[in-house]
Amino acid sequence: MAHDDDSQALEGAYQPSPGLSVAVTDPVENPGLPAHRERMTDKDPRAMKTAVRTVYTLFYISLAGSIWAVAAYMLFPIESGALIDVRYNNLFIGLGIGLALLALGLGAIHWSKAVMSDKEFIEPRHATRGKESTREAAIKAFADANEESGFGRRTMIRNSLIAAVVASIVPGVTLFRGLAPFNSEDDPTAGDPVALLSHTMWKGGMRLARDPDGTPIRAADVTLGSAMHVIPEPLTEVSHHDGYLEEKAKAIVLLMRLLPEQLKEDEDRKGWSYDGIVAYSKVCTHVGCPVALYEQQTHHLLCPCHQSQFDVTEHAKVIFGPAARPLPQLPIAVDDEGYLVAQSDFHEPVGPSFWERH
User: Fold this and answer.
1) Can you say how many angstroms the Cα of residue 186 is from the centroid of all Cα atoms in its chain?
2) Amino acid 229: pLDDT
3) 59-69 CB burial, b ≥16 within 10 A, e <16
4) What are 320's strand-pairing partners?
5) To pair with 304 at 20 to 30 A between CA atoms, which of 71, 124, 294, 340?
6) Residue 262 to residue 259: CA distance in whole angstroms
7) According to the model, what pLDDT value does residue 139 have?
8) Where are the bilayer-spanning segments (predicted)?
Protein backbone atom coordinates (compact mmCIF):
# COMPACT_ATOMS: atom_id res chain seq x y z
CA MET A 1 0.00 0.00 0.00
CA ALA A 2 1.35 3.41 -0.96
CA HIS A 3 1.65 6.24 1.53
CA ASP A 4 2.64 9.86 0.98
CA ASP A 5 5.41 11.44 3.02
CA ASP A 6 3.10 13.08 5.52
CA SER A 7 1.18 9.88 6.28
CA GLN A 8 4.44 8.08 7.02
CA ALA A 9 4.82 10.26 10.08
CA LEU A 10 1.56 8.92 11.50
CA GLU A 11 2.36 5.24 11.16
CA GLY A 12 3.56 4.98 14.74
CA ALA A 13 0.27 6.27 16.12
CA TYR A 14 -2.24 5.00 13.57
CA GLN A 15 -2.16 2.06 11.17
CA PRO A 16 -4.77 2.43 8.41
CA SER A 17 -6.64 -0.58 7.13
CA PRO A 18 -5.48 -2.15 3.90
CA GLY A 19 -6.75 -0.27 0.90
CA LEU A 20 -7.43 2.90 2.91
CA SER A 21 -5.42 6.00 2.04
CA VAL A 22 -4.91 8.80 4.56
CA ALA A 23 -4.60 12.45 3.63
CA VAL A 24 -3.12 14.79 6.24
CA THR A 25 -3.51 18.54 5.83
CA ASP A 26 -1.73 21.33 7.58
CA PRO A 27 -3.36 22.52 10.84
CA VAL A 28 -5.58 25.60 10.64
CA GLU A 29 -3.81 28.66 11.89
CA ASN A 30 -5.33 30.61 14.77
CA PRO A 31 -6.72 33.77 13.18
CA GLY A 32 -6.53 35.60 16.50
CA LEU A 33 -8.97 38.20 17.73
CA PRO A 34 -10.51 40.61 15.25
CA ALA A 35 -9.36 44.19 15.34
CA HIS A 36 -10.98 46.11 18.17
CA ARG A 37 -13.61 48.57 16.98
CA GLU A 38 -14.08 51.51 19.29
CA ARG A 39 -17.57 52.61 20.22
CA MET A 40 -18.75 56.19 19.93
CA THR A 41 -18.61 56.49 23.71
CA ASP A 42 -14.94 55.47 23.62
CA LYS A 43 -14.07 58.15 21.06
CA ASP A 44 -16.30 61.02 22.15
CA PRO A 45 -16.36 62.12 25.85
CA ARG A 46 -19.71 63.86 25.25
CA ALA A 47 -21.23 60.61 24.04
CA MET A 48 -19.93 58.88 27.19
CA LYS A 49 -21.55 61.55 29.37
CA THR A 50 -24.82 61.16 27.49
CA ALA A 51 -24.71 57.38 27.94
CA VAL A 52 -24.01 57.74 31.66
CA ARG A 53 -26.93 60.17 32.05
CA THR A 54 -29.20 57.78 30.15
CA VAL A 55 -28.27 54.88 32.40
CA TYR A 56 -28.89 56.59 35.72
CA THR A 57 -32.03 58.26 34.34
CA LEU A 58 -33.42 54.81 33.52
CA PHE A 59 -32.53 53.62 37.00
CA TYR A 60 -34.35 56.59 38.54
CA ILE A 61 -37.36 55.89 36.30
CA SER A 62 -37.30 52.35 37.68
CA LEU A 63 -37.25 53.79 41.19
CA ALA A 64 -40.23 56.01 40.35
CA GLY A 65 -42.14 53.01 38.94
CA SER A 66 -41.64 51.07 42.17
CA ILE A 67 -42.79 54.01 44.26
CA TRP A 68 -45.87 54.45 42.05
CA ALA A 69 -46.78 50.75 42.46
CA VAL A 70 -46.78 51.18 46.24
CA ALA A 71 -48.77 54.42 45.96
CA ALA A 72 -51.35 52.73 43.68
CA TYR A 73 -51.83 49.99 46.26
CA MET A 74 -52.79 52.67 48.78
CA LEU A 75 -54.80 54.91 46.42
CA PHE A 76 -57.03 52.10 45.16
CA PRO A 77 -57.52 49.74 48.14
CA ILE A 78 -59.11 46.43 47.25
CA GLU A 79 -60.53 46.30 50.78
CA SER A 80 -63.11 48.89 49.74
CA GLY A 81 -64.97 46.19 47.81
CA ALA A 82 -65.66 48.52 44.89
CA LEU A 83 -65.09 46.81 41.55
CA ILE A 84 -63.55 49.96 40.06
CA ASP A 85 -60.95 50.06 42.85
CA VAL A 86 -60.03 46.44 42.26
CA ARG A 87 -59.56 47.11 38.53
CA TYR A 88 -57.50 50.24 39.09
CA ASN A 89 -55.50 48.47 41.80
CA ASN A 90 -54.50 45.68 39.43
CA LEU A 91 -53.94 48.04 36.49
CA PHE A 92 -51.77 50.67 38.15
CA ILE A 93 -49.80 48.29 40.35
CA GLY A 94 -49.03 46.20 37.28
CA LEU A 95 -47.99 49.27 35.28
CA GLY A 96 -45.75 50.46 38.10
CA ILE A 97 -44.02 47.12 38.55
CA GLY A 98 -43.71 46.67 34.77
CA LEU A 99 -42.15 50.12 34.34
CA ALA A 100 -39.76 49.50 37.24
CA LEU A 101 -38.47 46.21 35.87
CA LEU A 102 -38.36 47.41 32.25
CA ALA A 103 -36.38 50.56 33.06
CA LEU A 104 -34.05 48.61 35.34
CA GLY A 105 -33.35 46.06 32.60
CA LEU A 106 -32.86 48.69 29.88
CA GLY A 107 -30.53 50.66 32.11
CA ALA A 108 -28.41 47.61 32.90
CA ILE A 109 -28.18 46.66 29.21
CA HIS A 110 -27.27 50.18 28.09
CA TRP A 111 -24.67 50.39 30.85
CA SER A 112 -23.00 47.17 29.74
CA LYS A 113 -23.06 48.09 26.04
CA ALA A 114 -22.15 51.77 26.11
CA VAL A 115 -20.36 52.52 29.37
CA MET A 116 -18.51 49.44 30.58
CA SER A 117 -15.19 48.57 29.01
CA ASP A 118 -15.55 46.27 26.01
CA LYS A 119 -11.91 45.46 25.33
CA GLU A 120 -11.28 41.83 24.55
CA PHE A 121 -8.87 39.85 26.69
CA ILE A 122 -7.72 36.26 27.04
CA GLU A 123 -7.85 34.54 30.40
CA PRO A 124 -5.48 31.55 30.42
CA ARG A 125 -6.58 28.45 32.29
CA HIS A 126 -4.30 26.99 34.90
CA ALA A 127 -4.41 24.10 37.32
CA THR A 128 -3.37 25.94 40.48
CA ARG A 129 -5.96 26.74 43.11
CA GLY A 130 -6.01 27.74 46.72
CA LYS A 131 -2.55 29.29 46.80
CA GLU A 132 -1.79 32.76 48.01
CA SER A 133 -0.97 33.84 44.50
CA THR A 134 -4.38 32.59 43.36
CA ARG A 135 -6.13 34.62 46.04
CA GLU A 136 -4.20 37.73 45.06
CA ALA A 137 -5.09 37.15 41.42
CA ALA A 138 -8.78 36.84 42.32
CA ILE A 139 -8.68 40.11 44.24
CA LYS A 140 -6.98 41.77 41.30
CA ALA A 141 -9.65 40.38 38.95
CA PHE A 142 -12.38 41.96 41.09
CA ALA A 143 -10.47 45.21 41.17
CA ASP A 144 -10.04 45.15 37.40
CA ALA A 145 -13.74 44.40 36.93
CA ASN A 146 -14.63 47.30 39.16
CA GLU A 147 -12.34 49.56 37.18
CA GLU A 148 -13.67 48.42 33.82
CA SER A 149 -17.34 48.62 34.83
CA GLY A 150 -16.92 52.00 36.47
CA PHE A 151 -19.05 50.81 39.39
CA GLY A 152 -16.74 52.38 41.94
CA ARG A 153 -16.04 55.57 40.00
CA ARG A 154 -19.42 56.39 38.50
CA THR A 155 -21.33 57.16 41.67
CA MET A 156 -24.51 58.34 39.96
CA ILE A 157 -24.89 55.03 38.14
CA ARG A 158 -23.97 53.02 41.21
CA ASN A 159 -26.31 54.86 43.59
CA SER A 160 -29.23 54.94 41.15
CA LEU A 161 -28.78 51.22 40.43
CA ILE A 162 -28.77 50.34 44.13
CA ALA A 163 -31.85 52.51 44.74
CA ALA A 164 -33.71 51.01 41.75
CA VAL A 165 -32.90 47.41 42.76
CA VAL A 166 -33.95 47.96 46.37
CA ALA A 167 -37.11 49.80 45.33
CA SER A 168 -38.07 47.07 42.83
CA ILE A 169 -38.57 44.68 45.76
CA VAL A 170 -40.81 47.04 47.72
CA PRO A 171 -43.99 46.62 45.57
CA GLY A 172 -43.84 42.86 45.98
CA VAL A 173 -43.43 43.20 49.75
CA THR A 174 -46.28 45.70 49.84
CA LEU A 175 -48.64 43.30 48.08
CA PHE A 176 -48.23 40.86 50.98
CA ARG A 177 -50.22 43.38 53.01
CA GLY A 178 -53.29 42.14 51.16
CA LEU A 179 -52.84 38.72 52.78
CA ALA A 180 -53.08 40.15 56.28
CA PRO A 181 -56.47 40.44 58.00
CA PHE A 182 -57.85 43.97 58.23
CA ASN A 183 -59.95 45.21 61.09
CA SER A 184 -63.35 46.79 60.79
CA GLU A 185 -65.36 48.57 63.47
CA ASP A 186 -68.62 47.51 61.80
CA ASP A 187 -67.65 43.85 61.64
CA PRO A 188 -65.65 42.53 64.62
CA THR A 189 -64.89 39.27 62.76
CA ALA A 190 -63.27 41.08 59.82
CA GLY A 191 -59.81 40.76 61.34
CA ASP A 192 -60.17 37.08 62.25
CA PRO A 193 -60.03 34.58 59.34
CA VAL A 194 -60.97 31.71 61.66
CA ALA A 195 -64.16 33.48 62.69
CA LEU A 196 -64.97 34.39 59.09
CA LEU A 197 -64.75 30.77 57.96
CA SER A 198 -66.42 29.31 61.05
CA HIS A 199 -69.86 30.54 59.98
CA THR A 200 -71.67 30.35 56.63
CA MET A 201 -75.21 31.12 55.43
CA TRP A 202 -76.44 27.66 56.40
CA LYS A 203 -79.00 27.62 59.21
CA GLY A 204 -81.41 25.08 60.61
CA GLY A 205 -84.39 24.49 58.30
CA MET A 206 -82.75 26.15 55.28
CA ARG A 207 -83.44 24.22 52.08
CA LEU A 208 -80.71 22.82 49.86
CA ALA A 209 -80.92 24.22 46.31
CA ARG A 210 -79.22 23.33 43.05
CA ASP A 211 -76.34 25.50 41.94
CA PRO A 212 -76.80 27.77 40.02
CA ASP A 213 -80.53 27.82 39.29
CA GLY A 214 -81.61 27.67 42.95
CA THR A 215 -84.18 24.85 42.58
CA PRO A 216 -84.93 23.19 45.95
CA ILE A 217 -83.94 19.53 46.09
CA ARG A 218 -86.27 16.74 47.13
CA ALA A 219 -84.70 13.71 48.77
CA ALA A 220 -86.57 11.49 46.32
CA ASP A 221 -84.87 13.25 43.38
CA VAL A 222 -81.35 12.35 44.55
CA THR A 223 -80.54 9.11 42.75
CA LEU A 224 -78.07 6.50 43.90
CA GLY A 225 -74.53 7.35 42.79
CA SER A 226 -75.40 10.94 41.86
CA ALA A 227 -73.57 14.08 42.95
CA MET A 228 -75.18 17.54 43.02
CA HIS A 229 -73.67 20.98 43.45
CA VAL A 230 -75.64 22.71 46.18
CA ILE A 231 -76.07 26.20 47.65
CA PRO A 232 -78.44 27.57 50.32
CA GLU A 233 -81.81 28.46 48.81
CA PRO A 234 -81.78 32.07 50.15
CA LEU A 235 -78.46 32.63 48.39
CA THR A 236 -80.27 32.75 45.04
CA GLU A 237 -82.13 35.84 46.27
CA VAL A 238 -78.98 37.74 47.25
CA SER A 239 -77.76 40.38 44.79
CA HIS A 240 -74.29 39.94 43.38
CA HIS A 241 -73.49 43.36 44.85
CA ASP A 242 -74.37 42.23 48.38
CA GLY A 243 -71.50 39.82 49.01
CA TYR A 244 -72.94 37.04 46.86
CA LEU A 245 -69.60 35.58 45.79
CA GLU A 246 -68.13 35.68 49.29
CA GLU A 247 -71.13 33.93 50.80
CA LYS A 248 -71.30 31.37 48.01
CA ALA A 249 -67.59 30.59 48.27
CA LYS A 250 -68.04 29.58 51.90
CA ALA A 251 -71.39 27.78 51.60
CA ILE A 252 -70.92 25.61 48.48
CA VAL A 253 -71.72 21.94 49.12
CA LEU A 254 -71.53 18.67 47.23
CA LEU A 255 -74.49 16.31 47.79
CA MET A 256 -74.16 12.56 47.15
CA ARG A 257 -76.27 9.45 47.69
CA LEU A 258 -74.89 6.05 48.64
CA LEU A 259 -76.46 2.90 50.00
CA PRO A 260 -77.09 3.51 53.72
CA GLU A 261 -75.09 0.39 54.64
CA GLN A 262 -72.03 1.79 52.84
CA LEU A 263 -71.72 4.69 55.28
CA LYS A 264 -69.33 4.23 58.21
CA GLU A 265 -70.71 6.89 60.51
CA ASP A 266 -69.59 7.85 63.99
CA GLU A 267 -72.22 7.51 66.70
CA ASP A 268 -72.49 11.28 67.19
CA ARG A 269 -72.95 11.85 63.41
CA LYS A 270 -75.40 9.12 62.46
CA GLY A 271 -78.18 11.69 62.34
CA TRP A 272 -76.30 13.99 59.96
CA SER A 273 -77.27 12.02 56.83
CA TYR A 274 -80.64 10.99 55.42
CA ASP A 275 -81.23 7.59 53.84
CA GLY A 276 -77.66 7.42 52.46
CA ILE A 277 -77.61 11.10 51.36
CA VAL A 278 -74.61 13.06 52.69
CA ALA A 279 -73.48 16.65 52.15
CA TYR A 280 -69.91 17.94 52.44
CA SER A 281 -68.26 21.29 51.91
CA LYS A 282 -66.75 21.67 48.42
CA VAL A 283 -63.91 23.83 49.74
CA CYS A 284 -60.73 21.74 49.99
CA THR A 285 -59.06 21.80 53.39
CA HIS A 286 -55.66 22.18 51.73
CA VAL A 287 -55.70 25.59 49.98
CA GLY A 288 -59.39 26.07 49.23
CA CYS A 289 -59.84 24.68 45.70
CA PRO A 290 -63.30 23.33 44.80
CA VAL A 291 -63.53 19.59 45.40
CA ALA A 292 -65.97 18.62 42.67
CA LEU A 293 -64.72 15.36 41.13
CA TYR A 294 -66.72 12.41 42.46
CA GLU A 295 -65.90 8.79 41.64
CA GLN A 296 -69.11 6.89 42.34
CA GLN A 297 -67.53 3.41 42.20
CA THR A 298 -64.91 4.10 44.90
CA HIS A 299 -66.95 6.87 46.61
CA HIS A 300 -63.91 9.14 46.58
CA LEU A 301 -63.84 12.90 46.13
CA LEU A 302 -60.83 14.34 44.32
CA CYS A 303 -59.45 17.87 44.51
CA PRO A 304 -58.12 18.72 41.02
CA CYS A 305 -55.56 21.24 42.26
CA HIS A 306 -53.23 19.06 44.34
CA GLN A 307 -54.90 15.63 44.14
CA SER A 308 -56.13 15.34 47.72
CA GLN A 309 -58.67 12.51 47.99
CA PHE A 310 -61.49 12.13 50.51
CA ASP A 311 -63.54 9.04 51.40
CA VAL A 312 -67.26 9.89 51.28
CA THR A 313 -68.21 6.68 53.08
CA GLU A 314 -66.28 7.71 56.19
CA HIS A 315 -67.00 11.38 56.87
CA ALA A 316 -64.83 12.51 53.92
CA LYS A 317 -61.61 11.64 55.69
CA VAL A 318 -58.33 12.29 53.84
CA ILE A 319 -56.95 9.16 52.18
CA PHE A 320 -54.36 10.79 49.90
CA GLY A 321 -52.71 14.13 49.26
CA PRO A 322 -51.68 17.22 51.22
CA ALA A 323 -55.07 18.07 52.80
CA ALA A 324 -54.74 18.07 56.59
CA ARG A 325 -58.29 17.28 57.70
CA PRO A 326 -61.61 15.88 56.40
CA LEU A 327 -64.11 18.00 54.53
CA PRO A 328 -66.62 19.58 56.94
CA GLN A 329 -69.97 17.77 56.84
CA LEU A 330 -73.27 19.63 56.65
CA PRO A 331 -75.93 17.95 58.81
CA ILE A 332 -79.08 17.46 56.73
CA ALA A 333 -82.67 16.27 57.20
CA VAL A 334 -86.00 16.34 55.31
CA ASP A 335 -88.84 18.78 55.92
CA ASP A 336 -92.59 18.04 55.83
CA GLU A 337 -92.70 18.51 52.04
CA GLY A 338 -89.84 16.09 51.35
CA TYR A 339 -87.23 18.75 50.63
CA LEU A 340 -83.69 18.40 51.95
CA VAL A 341 -82.86 21.01 54.60
CA ALA A 342 -79.85 21.81 56.74
CA GLN A 343 -80.04 20.93 60.42
CA SER A 344 -77.53 23.67 61.25
CA ASP A 345 -74.40 25.35 59.97
CA PHE A 346 -71.12 23.44 59.65
CA HIS A 347 -69.71 22.44 63.02
CA GLU A 348 -66.17 23.47 62.07
CA PRO A 349 -64.51 26.10 59.87
CA VAL A 350 -64.62 25.46 56.15
CA GLY A 351 -61.64 25.81 53.88
CA PRO A 352 -57.87 25.57 54.35
CA SER A 353 -56.54 24.39 57.69
CA PHE A 354 -53.88 27.08 57.85
CA TRP A 355 -56.57 29.60 58.81
CA GLU A 356 -56.84 27.79 62.14
CA ARG A 357 -53.19 28.26 63.01
CA HIS A 358 -52.55 31.06 65.46
Assistant:
1) 33
2) 93
3) bbbbbbbbebb
4) 309
5) 340
6) 5
7) 84
8) 55-76, 88-109, 161-180
